[in-house]
Prior knowledge:
Low-confidence stretches: none
Order of helices and strands: EHEHEHEHEHHEEHEHEEHHHHH
CATH topology: Rossmann fold
Number of helices: 13
Mean pLDDT: 93
Largest sheet: 7 strands, parallel
Radius of gyration: 20 Å
Shape: globular
CATH superfamily: NAD(P)-binding Rossmann-like Domain
Number of strands: 10
CATH class: Alpha Beta
Helix content: 40-55%
Amino acid sequence: xxxxxxxxxxxxxxxxxxxxxxxxxxxxxxxxxxxxxxxxxxxxxxxxxxxxxxxxxxxxxxxxxxxxxxxxxxxxxxxxxxxxxxxxxxxxxxxxxxxxxxxxxxxxxxxxxxxxxxxxxxxxxxxxxxxxxxxxxxxxxxxxxxxxxxxxxxxxxxxxxxxxxxxxxxxxxxxxxxxxxxxxxxxxxxxxxxxxxxxxxxxxxxxxxxxxxxxxxxxxxxxxxxxxxxxxxxxxxxxxxxxxxxxxxxxxxxxxxxxxxxxxxxxxxxxxxxxxxxxxxxxxxxxxxxxxxxxxxxxxxxxxxxxxxxxxxxxxxxxxxxxxxxxxxxxxxxxxxxxxxxxxxxxxxxxx
Length: 352
């Protein structure tokens, strides 16, 4: 049982991120002082939305210059904190060398944060943002999971440097965190494993996320011939932020938490948008045949290899989210609310 003193500051790494921004709003609204670790506090356009939130809340925000790859650079930001949220994770759009571009920063960054925590006497709990990518590799893995359903006991064993290197990096980073945790007794570790995170962006200038790309492709005509029934989990960003908050302040929170509201696929996600947006945008309403995707997929998107299509399209994705509901009291938003709120931002920002 770990009790966190909410009068002490809390550290959030990767503070300008999609999930982190909503988490910081939650913390500020509760009147907490947030130590926001960012690469460059002088880039005011990156932190403007956080400043606005702080002005409209009871809490305070203090910025610290930190870098995942610079040893000890989070030490100052961590001073006086009992609680550390490690949400930062390397984002690189063009991967030339998976080891150098993905694995080293993900694993090394996690090691850097956790080592600093062990050198900061005040730290009592770390909440780590991992991913369902550390639980499974392809939707077909669900078929081999106990009762055909992913649980917190399942680990991704199918990714590698050559296949799904991003998933490989998330898996290795989380495993590294558990290894470090087991070798010390000062702080405990709680891990949030979200599936595909969707919902409104706090910072409308963020256009580099996977979520943004998928929504844009649904609405800009890329998939007008049909959407693949690619099995995946989906969760609202606001629910992911709440999961982090509850994982931090619930004294009995422990272990991993699959944070996924819905078992779904691309076609179902598009169909939910049709009633509200179908008149104005070329949203797909029918499935793209798997054989056709096998034929053209590898040419349209380098991630759509034939192996990936074979293992994910027309295969149901299933995960058990009962642990987070029971332990942390998380109630997930309806998928329609998440999809419509997210798509509306693309409309408002004239992205489509």
